[in-house]
């Protein structure tokens, strides 16, 4: 058995893993005790990675179709890439370079990202290259650049051990970043004086553990932070010396903040004024205050303002650039940070450069050996699919992401993919919904089969190593992109043979390294060899350095034109789509502990269903009753964009007027795209009702994440209540008196089985399943309750294979 050191492919914590393999098969995974991100710990998802490394469902060979109505057929790599190059070249010749686009992923390695960026801008001549990270991290990027001057998180995980106050905003860290939360728990155990404040509309697992929970109304973050700043100013907790020496524009921010008294903010946020004052005093008196924040701030119609308003608190108190202090954005995807480094979004160039800056474009053109880079702004993720829908973009290349499931406004996205003249999908697994739209389908290597690097939330670069070869004819993503570039270059009459002459991932990294020279993220001192010797390192790591920089801005100098941090004045603007009479409830969405993204990988592991076996629509008990629903009834939740049928459950986590739907479940498990189908780009309104509605029985309720409105209707037939879960309550038991199949809800076979599979198959899959019950992400045995649980535990059953959706990388 061989053991290979690598990195987990889930969230942005960047945990080190040791991958065990035999021949071409991955047999196990465990945490790497030497990796500074996790010191050997893994969450439930990471500890089961080896169970997702299966051969079934993989794409093994290229496929193409000459026309949209023809079936795809197997092709060689040269035939597939030649066909794709012909179509892209024809599109560029007829309609210009901005008629093509590339949509890539925060799950790509840095080397993959780099080659795609160079292909789009340096060869195809378009800035239309964007990533699914746009949907989760672009607000954090903009917030950092607006205030601190660069997209560079100034803090690190080590700061958790030095903080006196941890201020968590818009993040259920205990479930979304379990290993980070375990470190917080350890710090609290060592330091009883450490306080935790959580800002979240729901009483999540993280909020329940907090010393103070500020349960604000969705979309009111700016009002809360401004009110806290008002208290800091009026009670003398601001650091005037630091402000004078290292910042600018504080006078304007102070003027705005003074208008947000705690009493005014209480009316906006729903948080008692006394709690706002209490939170501000704790922030102002803390020796070191560390903020951790994620999608609750970012995924908003004013996400940049949310980020900036929070960073204002740190600048006003000088809580930045020292141990235990700073604004720390937690990254959702494993390499969203690496993508930002190499210019993987339409709004950035490699090395944290700006595509709108002529000097920056000239620098990259010189480094790449091309005449010039395009000046026309590129289309961001949502704009890209809107352009596909209208025909402004004719051809699109999609790599390592599944927009036909994960993008908001699903009707538009699917229509856009149907309207597109040419679609290339580069994917590891056949079951991804986007594959159905592919004119050319290219098999890519995935986790455990690739070489390269990733950068985690704390700017730490780790080596990713291949434990086994890719199956069939699958290839690494960077290699596919480079080969396509050489094919396309010949058709465009440009020299791509020399500019894309990479022989290994290390060649790509070395070029990327040189692009960072002299920039805020300078890594010219890093090499693959050094990473092998010293282990993962944080940037900047310039040439000649002995180690990376743990935290930034300790000297009070910021990467802005003046060298000063910039206070950004923000005003409360509320949600983009408020509740109304037709859609009176606010929809919140978020992650579950044991699932990730669209479940294309985690959904293949039976034990991960033991925590939450099905998607639930949770709401306050009073709202549930007001909609004419009982706990466990099916409800149809509707927004102005679509409807999903889910089981309703009363929850004490939510205030009245709010409902919660997890983001993960989609068409692989439901007859709809789930929560994503309800969402638009920003904030939406929804409604809830049972799927079978007798005439005249209607009650309303319902809305969306960060404030999206919804409606609920009553009237579930008595014969449907209490007749069992899944198919029975969905009225799907054909032949049973009083029941009929409901077209809006089709329970899938593997979802119906999930309840009993969770505990039984866990024993078979891994001997380690006999551990204690999971706690904040630690792997453990499922705990079942009730007569069904006793039956399962008393009568062992042979676990049959289940239909699996294809895992995404």
Task: Describe the secondary structure blueprint for this structure.
Layout (H helix, E strand, L loop, with lengths): L1 E6 L8 E7 L2 E7 L31 E2 L8 E2 L2 H19 L4 E5 L5 H15 L4 E3 L2 H14 L17 E5 L3 H4 L1 H13 L4 E5 L5 H5 L2 E3 L6 H14 L5 H7 E2 L1 H8 L4 H8 L3 H13 L3 E5 L1 H4 L4 H15 L8 E4 L6 H6 L16 H11 L12 H10 L4 E5 L3 H4 L3 H10 L2 E6 L12 E4 L8 E4 L4 E5 L12 H16 L12 H11 L12 H7 L2 E2 L26 E2 L18 E6 L25 E4 L1 H6 L7 E6 L3 E8 L7 E5 L12 H4 L7 E4 L18 E3 L38 H17 L20 H9 L15
Parallel strand pairs: 6-7, 6-14, 8-9, 8-12, 9-10, 11-20, 12-13, 14-15, 15-16, 21-25, 22-24
Antiparallel strand pairs: 1-2, 2-3, 4-5, 4-16, 17-18, 18-19, 21-27, 22-25, 23-24, 23-26
Helix pairs in contact: 1-19, 2-19, 2-20, 3-13, 7-10, 7-11, 7-13, 10-11, 16-18
